[in-house]
C-alpha cells in the first residue's frame, strides 16, 4: 500500500516538475526520463565508486545531485531551446536515447546492461517505505512550490508570453532564452532528484529501466490530464493515473497487454480531455459566474481564463 | 583507404533505406504539421507483416511489399481520421506528438502480444549471398534493399511532381490557406498524405526486416535516428530528408569502421547538435516567421 503511495507521490513530483517548463512555456519536453536516469545513475555511481554510506546519508546528497544536474543541463538547454517547440520535442526525444546509450556504453561507471546494484537500504522491513515516502513528498512539495512561485512571479509571466507569442515576447524585450533555460534547468534538476530517490528505493538499476520513455510519457500524460500550466493539475493527474497504471501493471503486467491498455487510456484522455480537468472546471466556473443561470444569453464566447488575463 | 571506401559504400546502401523511412515522416510533417512518432512503430509493423507473409505463405518479402503497402495505406488513413483529425488545429502540432507516441506504444504492445519480444529476422534464401566488385563486397540483400527503396522514392517523387494529387499535396505543404482557397480539399489531402506516409513506412519496414533483426521495441531506436535525419534535412523537405539520410548513413558507417561500432549511433546525435548550433532550420529548411 505504501508502495503505491511512494509511486503516486513520485509521479506527482515528476509531473509537477515537468509542468514548470512544458506547462508554462509550451515547450514540451519528451526527454525528462533522460534526467531521471541521470539522477538515478548519479546516486548509483556515488554509492559504488565513491561510497556515500548507507542509511539516511544518500538523502542528504540528493539536493547536491539536483543542483549539479541543473547546472549541467544549462548548456544542453541552451542548445536544445534554440529551436521552436516542435523541434525541441524532437531533440529531447533524442536526448533520451543519448543517455540510454551512455548508460549502456560507459561500462566502467554503469556496468552497462548488467545493471548497477545499490546497497540495500538498512531500514526495518515494516517501515521500509516510510523514509522514501517522506523524501519523495519533500521533492514533490518543492516542485509544487516552484510552480506556485513561477505562476505568480515575473518569471511566470515571461514564460506565458513565450507560450503565446515568442517573437512578440522577444520583440518587447523579454529575455526569452534565459527564461526558458532557467525553467528547463530547475525542471530537470528536480526530475534528477526524484530519479536518485527512485534508484535508492529500487536498489537495482539498468539502462532500459532507469531511462524509460514510459516515465516521461507517464509524467506528461498526468500533467495533461490534470491540466498543464496549473499548480495542482499535474498532481491531480498523478493521483488519478498512478493507481490506474499500477492496477493495469498488476492485472496485465505478465502479458504485454499492459502496453496496449496504457496506450488506450492515453489516447482516450488526449482525445476527450486535451485541456485537462482543472482548466475545464475553471472554464465552467467562470461561465457560471458570468451568467448566474449557467448559460450564455447571447451565445457570446466564454470569458477568458484567468491565466490568459494574467498573460 | 579500402576500408574507408568500403564503409562509405555500405553507408550509402543503408542511407537509401533511411531515406525511404524518413520520407514518410517529413511528408506527414509537411502536409499536416504532425510529427509522427509512430513512424518507427509502423516500420516495425511492416517488418512483422512481411515476416509473417514470408514464413506462413512463403511470399518473398520484396514482393510482399505489394501486399503490405495497400493495407498500411488504409491503416494510415484510418489513424489520421480517428486520432489526428479530432485534434484542434491550434494544438495539433504539440498534441499530435503525444497522440502518435501513444499509437506507437499501442502498436508495440499489440506486436509484443502476437510475436513476443524475441528478435526475428526475415531470412531469405539469398540472405548470405554477396557480390564482389573491384575488391569491394556488397551483400545482395543490401543492394536489393537500396534498389527497392530508390524505386519507391522515385515513385513517390513522380506521384508528387506529376499527378494532380501530388500538386494538391505540394500546394498544401507550401501554403495550406491558399491551397484551401484554391479549392483543395485539405482534409482529404491530409488523410491521403498520412496514408502515403504509413505506406512508405511499412514498405521500408519490409526492407528493414530483411537486413536487420528486429523486435517490437526496435521502433525507439529507429525513430530517434529518423527524427535526427528530418531535423538535419529540414522538417517538411523531401529532398532534404534524402540528402540527410545519405549523409547520416555514410557518417554512421565510416564512424563504425574507423572509430568504434559501439558508439556509431552517436553520429546521429552529434550531427543533430551541430546542426542546431549552426543552422537550426536544417539543411533545406525554410526560416518561417516564428518557426525554428
Account of the protein in words:
The complex is a heterodimer of chains A (311) and B (292). Chain A has 15 helices and two strands. Chain A has helices at 2-25, 32-50, 57-80, 85-105, 107-110, 130-152, 154-164, 166-171, 176-202, 207-210, 213-226, 233-252, 257-272, 277-290, 306-310; strands at residues 116-117, 204-205. Chain A is mainly alpha-helical. In chain A, helix 1 runs parallel beside helix 6 (130-152), helix 3 (57-80) runs antiparallel to helix 9 (176-202) and helix 7 (154-164) packs across helix 9 (176-202). Chain A has a two-stranded antiparallel sheet. The radius of gyration of chain A is 20 Å and the shape is globular. Chain A has a domain at 2-212. Chain B is mainly alpha-helical and 292 residues long. Helices cover 73% and strands 3% of the residues of chain B. Chain B has helices at 2-32, 39-57, 61-84, 92-115, 140-162, 164-174, 176-181, 186-211, 218-233, 238-258, 266-278; strands at 130-133, 136-139. A two-stranded antiparallel sheet of chain B has the order 1-2. In chain B, a hairpin with a 2-residue loop joins strand 1 and strand 2 (136-139). In chain B, helix 2 crosses helix 9 (218-233). Chain B is globular and about 60 Å long. The termini of chain B are far apart. Residues 287-292 of chain B have low confidence and may be disordered. The interface between A and B is large, with 45 and 51 residues.
Oligomeric state:
heterodimer
Shape of chain A: globular
Number of domains of chain B: 1
Shape of chain B: globular
Strand order across the largest sheet of chain A: 1-2
Terminus-to-terminus distance of chain A: 42 Å
Radius of gyration of chain B (CA) equals: 19 Å
Q: What's the total count of β strands of chain A?
A: 2
Encode the helix/strand succession of chain A as letters.
Answer: HHHHHEHHHHEHHHHHH
The assigned structural class of chain A equals mainly alpha
Question: Strand fraction band of chain A?
Answer: under 5%
Q: How many β strands of chain B by DSSP?
A: 2
Amino acid at each position: 500500500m505504501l508502495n503505491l503511495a511512494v509511486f503516486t507521490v513520485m509521479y506527482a513530483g515528476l509531473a509537477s516538475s515537468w509542468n514548470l517548463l512544458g506547462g508554462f512555456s509550451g515547450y514540451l519536453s519528451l526527454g525528462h526520463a533522460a534526467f531521471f536516469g541521470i539522477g538515478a545513475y548519479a546516486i548509483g555511481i556515488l554509492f559504488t565508486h565513491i561510497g556515500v554510506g548507507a542509511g539516511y546519508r544518500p538523502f542528504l546528497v540528493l539536493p547536491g545531485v539536483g543542483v549539479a544536474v541543473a547546472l549541467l543541463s544549462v548548456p544542453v538547454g541552451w542548445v536544445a531551446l534554440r529551436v521552436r517547440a516542435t523541434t525541441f520535442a524532437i531533440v529531447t526525444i533524442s536526448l533520451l536515447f543519448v543517455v540510454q546509450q551512455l548508460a549502456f556504453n560507459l561500462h566502467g561507471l554503469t556496468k552497462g546492461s548488467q545493471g548497477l546494484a545499490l546497497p540495500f537500504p538498512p531500514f526495518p522491513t515494516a517501515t521500509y517505505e516510510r523514509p522514501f515516502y517522506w523524501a519523495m513528498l519533500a521533492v514533490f512539495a518543492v516542485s509544487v512550490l516552484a510552480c506556485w512561485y513561477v505562476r505568480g512571479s515575473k518569471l511566470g509571466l515571461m514564460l506565458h508570453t513565450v507560450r503565446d507569442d515568442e517573437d512578440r515576447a522577444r520583440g518587447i524585450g523579454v529575455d526569452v532564452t534565459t527564461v526558458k533555460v532557467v525553467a528547463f534547468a530547475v525542471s530537470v534538476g528536480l526530475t534528477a532528484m526524484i530519479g536518485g530517490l527512485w534508484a535508492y528505493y529500487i536498489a537495482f538499476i539498468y539502462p532500459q529501466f532507469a531511462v524509460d520513455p514510459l516515465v516521461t510519457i507517464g509524467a506528461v500524460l498526468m500533467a495533461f490530464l490534470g491540466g498543464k500550466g496549473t499548480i495542482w493539475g499535474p498532481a491531480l493527474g498523478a493521483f488519478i493515473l498512478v493507481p490506474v497504471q499500477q492496477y493495469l501493471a498488476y492485472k496485465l503486467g505478465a502479458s504485454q497487454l499492459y502496453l496496449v491498455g496504457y496506450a488506450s487510456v492515453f489516447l482516450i484522455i488526449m482525445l476527450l480531455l486535451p485541456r485537462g480537468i482543472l482548466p475545464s472546471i475553471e472554464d465552467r466556473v467562470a461561465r457560471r459566474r458570468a451568467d448566474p443561470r449557467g448559460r450564455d444569453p447571447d451565445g457570446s464566447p466564454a470569458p477568458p481564463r484567468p491565466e490568459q488575463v494574467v498573460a | 583507404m579500402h576500408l574507408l571506401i568500403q564503409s562509405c559504400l555500405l553507408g550509402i546502401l543503408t542511407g537509401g533505406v533511411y531515406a525511404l523511412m524518413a520520407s514518410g515522416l517529413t511528408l506527414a510533417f509537411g502536409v499536416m504539421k504532425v510529427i509522427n512518432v509512430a513512424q518507427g512503430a509502423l516500420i516495425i509493423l511492416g517488418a512483422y507483416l512481411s515476416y509473417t507473409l514470408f514464413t506462413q505463405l512463403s511470399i518473398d518479402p520484396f514482393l510482399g511489399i505489394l501486399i503490405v503497402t495497400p493495407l498500411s495505406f488504409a491503416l494510415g488513413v484510418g489513424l489520421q481520421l480517428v486520432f489526428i483529425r479530432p485534434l484542434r488545429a491550434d494544438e495539433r502540432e504539440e498534441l499530435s506528438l503525444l497522440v502518435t507516441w501513444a499509437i506507437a506504444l499501442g502498436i508495440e504492445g499489440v506486436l509484443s502480444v502476437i510475436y513476443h519480444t524475441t528478435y526475428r529476422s526475415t531470412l531469405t534464401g539469398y540472405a548470405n549471398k554477396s557480390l564482389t566488385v573491384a575488391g569491394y563486397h556488397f551483400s545482395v540483400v543490401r543492394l536489393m534493399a537500396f534498389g527497392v527503396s530508390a524505386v519507391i522514392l522515385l515513385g513517390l517523387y513522380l506521384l508528387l511532381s506529376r499527378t494532380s494529387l501530388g500538386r494538391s499535396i505540394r500546394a498544401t505543404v507550401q501554403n495550406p490557406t491558399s491551397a484551401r482557397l484554391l479549392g483543395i480539399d485539405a482534409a482529404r489531402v491530409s488523410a491521403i498524405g498520412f496514408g502515403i506516409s504509413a505506406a512508405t513506412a511499412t514498405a521500408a519496414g519490409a526492407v528493414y526486416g530483411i537486413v536487420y533483426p528486429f523486435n517490437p521495441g526496435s521502433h525507439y531506436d529507429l525513430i530517434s535516428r529518423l527524427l535526427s535525419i528530418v531535423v538535419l534535412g529540414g522538417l517538411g523537405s523531401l529532398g532534404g530528408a534524402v540528402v540527410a539520410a545519405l549523409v547520416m548513413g555514410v557518417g554512421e558507417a565510416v564512424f563504425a569502421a574507423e572509430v568504434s561500432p559501439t558508439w556509431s549511433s552517436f553520429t546521429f546525435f552529434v550531427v543533430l547538435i551541430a546542426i542546431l548550433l549552426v543552422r537550426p532550420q536544417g539543411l533545406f529548411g525554410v526560416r518561417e516567421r516564428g518557426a525554428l
